[in-house]
Amino acid sequence: MAYLVQCEKKDLEVAEKLEEDIALWKKRVGLARERGEDELAEQARERALALIAERRALQTRLDMIANEKDILRRESRRPHGRELEYAEELLRRWQESGLVDPEKAALDEEFDKLDSEQALAELHEEIVGTLDDDSLANEVVLSDPDALGSPEPDDLR
After folding, report:
1. What is the C-alpha to C-alpha distance for residues 131 and 123, in angstroms, rounded to an integer?
2. 3-state class (DSSP) for residue 70
3. Which of 76, 81, 96, 147 measures 20 to 30 Å from 68, CA to CA?
4. DSSP state of 150
5. Buried b / exposed e across 112-143, counting CB within 10 Å, b at 16+?
């Protein structure tokens, strides 16, 4: 990776210099044409085209370096032999220790929810089934002692 970074840094410096040179040779082409020196303008144009081709080749190298760096980054993040074996061993020990399996725990939680919903539905049906509309009308539940007409404490003397 360090080698790739060094190569990239050098290539970027070269690319920067090429950009300056390309601009310079394009300017020379314009100046030669203004003076009417077609042969000199053609030489400057050829030099500018050669620099542009060199810049394209350099850009291709920079792209390849970037791709190689990405591949190395991805490879470095993947678990390798010993780490993968260690993780699998830890998982096996954890499962053998009798601790809760996350997948089983999620299923157990769903089953518990379904059981509680079913129990509530059965209780609701039982309550609704035992109570008639007539019995509800006749049944009066009062929590206020005054509503029952109980004697006042002063009346009990």
Report:
1. 12
2. helix
3. 81
4. P
5. eeeeeeeeeeeeeeeeeeeeeeeeeeeeeeee
In one letter, which amino acid is 12? L
The sign of the torsion formed by the CA atoms of 54, 57, 63, 66 equals: negative
Locus of tokens 């059965």? 122
Point out the least confidently predicted range of 23-27, 56-60, 100-104. 100-104
**The two structure tokens encoding residue 127:** 């309550």
pLDDT tens, position by position, 67-114: 999 988 888 777 677 777 888 888 888 777 766 666 777 788 888 898
CA dihedral sign of residues 88, 91, 92, 93:
positive
